[in-house]
């Protein structure tokens, strides 16, 4: 038997076995030190007694692996890469070898063979760009980073809710923060209103790509292309106030607000626990007391003392800007519908009709609704919904977009119709596909005919590859309930699209 060179791990095992044989340590202690089970330690000790030091070496040492690429194949790949397929990158060369030469190898194997032969890929990856840490803004109010943090702030004593947080980039201080039930447009508008009323109008806002700030649905899913390119309610309000909205492409880009959220999840959660609050209202009161102490502890002075906040013009109707605006067409009976509520437009002194015109519905942060037409407010009152709403089995939308009017609650109480929000009865007849499902299926089938891969289709349409695979394998578009049209025709369940 020739010389045997042991690795560091094998030398450690040999040392431990010698200590066991000398009686200095037990097998349990030796096995625990080596990261082995005690049973495996006894196996090694038995082999060591019979074969000596060679027993601690791996049994396959020196043997050729059964799946190793032969020298002939390695030589052939090297010759083909230098002659017939010269200039092909490693991935392309792997495909050509399998299709034309009958040499089935993985890309990593081909790369290892060519690299050992000194043949690197002709196509090189772009080197990573050198990045610099962005300096803080020089003036307070030049840039505010905002974000929402959905967290178990009450540690099980109450529901989960979201902290809407703003951090000044120049000082790291928090000008305003509020707890809301969810991260929505109204919450961010309330946050900006408080900042403007207490400090002024900031120059720019740095935020992520949440649907509050940017439409996130792909273009092909929206029938109205103008809606896709139109700004969100928040972006529209910021444009009217002259505030620039900068969309971050990664959490690291707005690292100051991300780091502040982590600090709040540590310190503020502890203070909420110490005070024993169990509701979002009490949590906001604790938050108001916590913010000054947080700013004194973690805030830094700006490079320039003069703040960049712009004072709000006293004549500026801030409430009319920081609200949600929606365009609605006036019906023939001079009513407009908004979130399951019906508003009756009252005539003015001229008695003109607004039927057929488009009016603007404004929903203010306090829940008040207002109808505007050509820049003036139209008197309106809320009217009862249609009669079907009161019939047995009538449904009330579960969206919770608007509170129920007091007069309606009185009527429903008198009728004893407290269970009006029953779920709609399910029909056993399958319905047709929704416009979104039909459009998505058509887009996948069209891209499939063009020869695009599933990865390319997923990237183009903004959906997952799994969804693309399901839509590509189906013979028809899905339906909104109870399966697909393909299922109705007797297609196997594996082709169903959810």
CATH superfamily of the domain at 144-211 and 241-298: Ribonuclease H-like superfamily/Ribonuclease H
Distance between the termini: 65 Å
- Roughly how many Å is the radius of gyration? 34 Å
Which spans have pLDDT < 50 for at least 5 consecutive residues?
A: 396-402, 417-429, 481-498
Helical coverage, percent range = 25-40%
Shape descriptor reads extended
Strand content: 5-15%
Q: What structural category do the secondary elements indicate?
A: alpha+beta
Global mean pLDDT: 82
In CATH's first tier, which class of the domain at 144-211 and 241-298 applies?
A: Alpha Beta
Order of helices and strands: HHHHHHEEEHEHHEHHHEEEEEEEHHHHH
Which CATH architecture of the domain at 144-211 and 241-298 is right?
2-Layer Sandwich
Read across the widest sheet, the strand sequence of neighbours is 3-2-1-4-5
| CATH fold-level assignment of the domain at 144-211 and 241-298 | Nucleotidyltransferase, domain 5
Total beta-strand segments: 12
- Count helical runs: 17
Main sheet attributes: strand count, strand direction, barrel closure: 5 strands, mixed
């Amino acid at each position: 038997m020739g010389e045997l060179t042991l690795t560091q791990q094998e030398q450690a095992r040999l040392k431990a076995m010698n200590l066991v044989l000398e009686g200095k340590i037990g097998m349990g202690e030796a096995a625990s030190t080596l990261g082995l089970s005690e049973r495996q330690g006894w196996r090694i000790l038995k082999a060591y007694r019979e074969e000596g030091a060679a027993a601690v070496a791996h049994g396959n040492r020196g043997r050729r692996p059964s799946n190793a690429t032969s020298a002939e194949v390695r030589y052939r790949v090297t010759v083909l890469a230098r002659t017939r397929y010269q200039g092909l990158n490693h991935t392309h060369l792997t495909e050509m070898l399998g299709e034309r030469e009958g040499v089935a190898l993985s890309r990593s194997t081909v790369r290892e063979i060519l690299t050992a032969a000194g043949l690197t890929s002709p196509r090189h990856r772009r080197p990573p760009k050198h990045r610099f840490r962005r300096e803080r803004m020089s003036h307070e109010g030049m840039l505010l980073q905002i974000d929402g943090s959905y967290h178990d702030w009450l540690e099980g004593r109450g529901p989960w809710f979201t902290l809407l947080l703003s951090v000044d980039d120049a000082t790291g201080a928090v000008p305003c923060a509020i707890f809301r039930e969810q991260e929505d447009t109204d919450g961010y508008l309330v946050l900006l209103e408080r900042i403007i009323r207490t400090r002024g109008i900031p120059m720019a806002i740095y935020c992520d790509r949440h649907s509050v700030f940017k439409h996130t649905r792909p273009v092909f899913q929206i029938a109205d292309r103008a809606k896709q390119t139109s700004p969100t309610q928040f972006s529209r309000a910021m444009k009217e106030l002259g505030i620039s909205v900068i969309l971050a492409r990664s959490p690291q880009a707005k690292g100051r607000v991300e780091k502040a959220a982590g600090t709040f999840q540590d310190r503020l959660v502890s203070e909420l626990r110490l005070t024993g609050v169990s509701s979002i209202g009490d949590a906001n009161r604790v938050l108001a007391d916590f913010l000054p102490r947080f700013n004194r502890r973690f805030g830094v002075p700006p490079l320039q003392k003069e703040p960049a906040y712009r004072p709000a013009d006293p004549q500026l109707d801030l409430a009319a800007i920081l609200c949600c605006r929606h365009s609605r067409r006036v019906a023939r009976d001079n009513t407009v519908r908004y979130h399951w509520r019906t508003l009756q437009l009252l005539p003015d002194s001229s008695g003109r009709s607004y039927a057929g015109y488009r009016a603007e519905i404004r929903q203010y942060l306090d829940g008040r609704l207002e109808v505007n037409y050509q820049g003036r407010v139209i008197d309106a009152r809320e009217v009862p919904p249609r009669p079907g709403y009161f019939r047995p089995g009538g449904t009330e939308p579960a969206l919770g977009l608007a509170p129920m009017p007091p007069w309606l609650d009185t009527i429903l109480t008198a009728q004893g119709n407290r269970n009006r929000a029953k779920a709609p009865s399910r029909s056993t007849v399958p319905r047709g596909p929704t416009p979104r499902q039909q459009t998505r299926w058509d887009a996948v089938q069209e891209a499939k005919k063009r020869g695009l891969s599933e990865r390319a289709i997923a990237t183009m349409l903004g959906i997952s590859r799994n969804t693309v695979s399901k839509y590509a394998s189906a013979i028809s578009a899905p339906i909104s309930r109870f399966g697909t049209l393909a299922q109705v025709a007797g297609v196997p369940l594996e082709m169903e699209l959810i």
